[in-house]
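Give me the fold.
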Amino acid sequence: MKTARLFPIVAASVALACGAAGFGQASSGPERPLGIFESQSDVGVVHPGGTASFDAASGMYTIASSGANLWSTTDGFHLVWAKVSDDLSLTADIELAPPAAGSNPHRKALLMLRQTLDADSMYADVAVHGSGETALQYRRNKGDTTQDIAFDLGAPKTMRLEKRGDTITLFVSMKGEPLHHAGASIKLHFAEPFYAGLGVCAHQDGAVEKATFAHVELKPLVARRSPPPMALYSTLQTIAIDNNARMAYVILTGKGHMEAPNWSKDGKTLIFNRDGRLWNVPVAGGEASAIDLGGATDCTGSHGLSPDGKWLAMTCTTADHPGRRVYVIPSGGGTPRMVTANPNSYFHSWSPDGKTILFTRSTNGSLNIYAIPAEGGDEKALTTGTGTSDDPDYSPDGQYIYFNSDRAGGMQIFRMQPDGSQVEQMTFDERRNWTAHPSPDGKSVLILSYGSDVTGHPANKDVTLRILDANTKKVRDLVEIVGGSGTDNVPNWAPDGAHFAFVSYQMLPEVDDGASE
């Protein structure tokens, strides 16, 4: 099971206020029988039809609904809604009724933002499942397949879905503590007006499930009079590449800069960089533990395990050798052994036989790719000349080295023979494409793409993680995040070839108080 682990977070209160359509306080008058909401609707096929009620005395909403699913390309559920505009937050305590005989574990109660009431509409929601899973679900475009970011947290006591600009962010309180960032945010553009509301889906047409929603707040947002100090928050995730089930799981989240996850050979652990050190964290969730680097410091997001899993190559500094070089240590930690004698060397990939290491070095403003025996020795330049050739990674059969280069103009993906010959261009679009990582079967290549207006390999930009078909050279988008440098600098595929790991980023208040501004 996947568990989202939160770094220690201090929370404080925040005041939010601004004008927007559809906002108001709960009313006990007959003109507002649904409190702060305008109406209720079955979305998609719901049989029998859903119902909702509002108790003005307690402020509680009760929704009962059938519906086959809220997933895939179309939905069936009951929604209590208000039409809204501008930025907002929607907050509630959600409690699913105890399961009846035959209840589906994927029945869900949710807070939702939705473009229309069409069954295949674009939307974002945070849903509590009967199984105990919590997920931020979203459909990017009308008729697309739903994606989600899941947490095995159990059901939080309170959840908040916040829209600020095109960024949708989830905040949670597990046991009544102040709301805090859960590690999930996505980018979606809602045309105004759109819908905000509460929903229930039985995940089984003909069955009826019930949920209650207490302490419901639908509030407009404005910038604070005195903007708070901001800090970078990082979220380490895994995601499946299946087009029909693009499910992501949050492994670790918190303030600070994490980067460059590698997957262990047994698929149970992720290695990542934070604060100049390397760390292990279980894929199933848990606390991160520092790897013994034997005196190496100032490590970067350039590291990776040997094919047999026994050795860890890394780019660090040691006291007797200033300047970053490639070192190797036992995978469980230990004394570093220098591989590259020259400084300013950055690890990228092991050859499939474990005998060669690829690294890059910048000289006179140009970045090029080199190969060196894993035991150390003479290095060989595989690319030469001006410009940038970066992020080399071997194909699993050792026949190719994939890399990115600006030799054709904008940054594109190429591959070459292991000796540097027969360079072949693989991408040809207007995006700036970086960090090509072949899958374990060699059929797919993960790439990170910036917009055409971005120069270099910066962090904290809107990027798209995409899958390049190694045979046809066709590319499909997988997930849009805030990332860039640090997201997937090094090989990051799971051994099963069905998942990969990455890091996304978000600027949030330094004191996490349940809001994004």
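The domain at 17-220 is CATH 2.60.120.200 (Jelly Rolls).
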